[in-house]
Amino acid sequence: QSVLTQSPSASGTPGQWVTISCSGSNSNIGSHTVNWYQQPPGTAPKLLIHKNGQRPSGVPDRFSGSKSGTSASLAISGLQSEDEADYYCAAWDDNLNAYVFGTGTEVTVL
Amino acid sequence: QVQLQESGPGLLKPSETLSLTCVVSGSSFSSGFYWGWIRQPPGKGLEWVGSVNLLGNTYYNPSLKSRVTMSFDTSKNQFSLKLNSVTAADTAVYYCARPYTTSDKAKFDIWGQGTLVTVSS
Q1: Among B61, B113, B114, whose Cβ lies nearest the Cβ of A98?
Q2: Helix (H/G/I), strand (E/B), else coil: A79
Q3: Separation between Cα atoms, residue A89 and residue A73, nearest integer Å
Q4: pLDDT single digits (tens) A26-60
Q5: A50 touches chain B (CB under 8 A)
Q6: How far is A22 from chain B (nearest CA, A)?
Q7: d(Cα A52, Cα A29) in Å, to the nearest integer?
Q8: Do the Cβ atoms of A45 and B113 come within 8 Å?
Q9: Contacts of residue B47 in chain A, CB cutoff 8 Å?
């Protein structure tokens, strides 16, 4: 049972804006930066966003992240078919002394 | 270009020890990075198993800590995961991964392709 909670699913048509939320607590999101991973079906996860809102090299600027208090969000603007994937938030948790992943959100492009 | 490749037995019986290796190419363990393992049960989410560096700094998931050991074989440029007393709940795809910078314990940006381990009698 993850300490980071995400909505199970999100969807949109091509070109739309989709947001994914990640809810945590003071011991994780409230104290540490948030990372986001993208995992298309059958593939290994890919680091999509780190330090709340920074994109590694090669990640399109359609993806953006933010954090407020004990929650974080990932936004995808101009949704594309290749964005169909599972998305996970993650952060260090001081109480568990562990890196914790969110429950995951499945994004479907209609 | 850094590449990681997991290998190990795909099928284990309950109570056996899971042993996986991750061969690293394009990077040296002396570079100061942590190296980690993450697992994903079929159809479920990601779970961090642990991270370790060559200096001996070790972080294990507390839910697995009593059963996990991670180590290096620098001569073969590989690191390994051992998980003892496995049960069906340990059935998962196991990924090895390297974090983004040497300051990170677990912000993984380089991943292996993953290897499925099934525990079944």
Answers
A1: B61
A2: coil
A3: 9
A4: 999 999 999 999 999 999 999 999 999 999 999 99
A5: yes
A6: 14
A7: 9
A8: no
A9: 101
Note whether B45 contacts A46, CB cutoff 8 Å: no
Q: Which of A89, A94, A99 to mutate to test the interface with B (most CBs of B within 10 A)?
A: A99
Assess contact for A94 and A28: CB atoms under 8 A.
Answer: yes
A70-73, Cβ contacts within 8 angstroms, sequence gap of 24 or more: A70/A23, A70/A24, A70/A25, A70/A26, A70/A28, A70/A29, A70/A30, A71/A21, A71/A22, A71/A23, A71/A24, A71/A29, A72/A21, A72/A22, A72/A24, A72/A29, A72/A34, A72/A36, A73/A19, A73/A20, A73/A21, A73/A22
Contact list, B57 vs chain A (CB under 8 Å) = none
Report the distance separating Cα A102 and Cα A86, nearest Å: 11
On chain B, the residues whose CB falls within 8 A of the CB of A50 are: 100, 107, 109
Could you read off the pLDDT of A53-82 as tens digits, one per residue?
A: 999 999 999 999 999 999 999 999 999 999
The per-residue pLDDT for range B13-39, each reduced to its tens digit, is: 999 999 999 999 988 777 789 999 999
Name the CA radius of gyration of chain A, rounded: 13
Tokens matching residue B20: 């996986």
Type of residue found at A94: D
Q: pLDDT tens-digit profile of B44-101?
A: 999 999 999 988 889 999 999 999 999 999 899 999 999 999 999 999 999 999 999 9
